[in-house]
Amino acid sequence: MRNSGTKPEAVDLIILATTTPRRIAPSTACFVQHGLKAINSAAFDLNAVCSGFIYSMSVGVQFITSGAYQRVLVIGADTFSKITDWSSRNCVFFGDGAGAVVFAPCPEGEGVLSFDLGADGSDGSSWTVLAGGSELPTSEETIKRKLHYWQMDGKAVFQMATNKIPFTLSRSLAKAGLTKEQIDHIIPHQPSIGILKKTSEITGIPFEKFYTNMDRYANTSSATIPMLLAEVQQRGLLRPGEIVAFIAVGAGWTWGSMIVRWAK
Fold this sequence. Notes:
Elements: E1 13-17, H1 28-36, E2 42-46, H2 52-65, E3 72-79, E4 96-103, E5 111-119, E6 127-128, H3 140-144, E7 151-152, H4 154-176, E8 185-188, H5 193-203, H6 214-217, H7 224-234, E9 243-250, E10 254-261
Parallel strand pairs: 1-2, 1-3, 8-9
Antiparallel strand pairs: 3-4, 5-10, 6-7, 9-10
């Protein structure tokens, strides 16, 4: 908010993407609204796991383009260390992090050009947290069986991700009337280096255009894209008029992409 010159009272809406909310209720976004003293804003959480930030950006954009709101704060935040079984060999995959962006109106032809979202609810077990909801409420048994920790089938994640990331990216590019050659930067969710390299191979987009930070933070789920975007921006790598592509996949399954012309 400081970077964008946005005062708390100017925020119209807070959307917080997370899989690890502070509580089941109220929403974590309401705690953030109170902490920021953003007294004029509505607030809600959105859970699409690792696709959560793109889903949230897409929702926020609608309020801006409709003219309903002028300032939308979109946050991605997750604390996977709280739901990780540290005795599992998979424990190294996820980390904790948070990032945010402020959406505001910009001239036509700049900012968000297109987006694409998708979901397939036929596989709810390849990445999941089984207990703690209404299906399996917390009990001595669920704690004993470690059902409150995330569980992952890495092979299934790889297959889904390398199929759906190229698919959704091509759809967003088509909606924007652009080609893959016109992409200057790719800010991806951070599932694994292997998935990103395979995506580069399938799409034919040079891997040099893909930015990563998982060597430092691992996969921070909803926070990966805003954290990475902040780092790239702070390094002065984004120039007005350049095309930036955002891509993500998440449990559910969910996936999404967004094409942005970096505004002046």
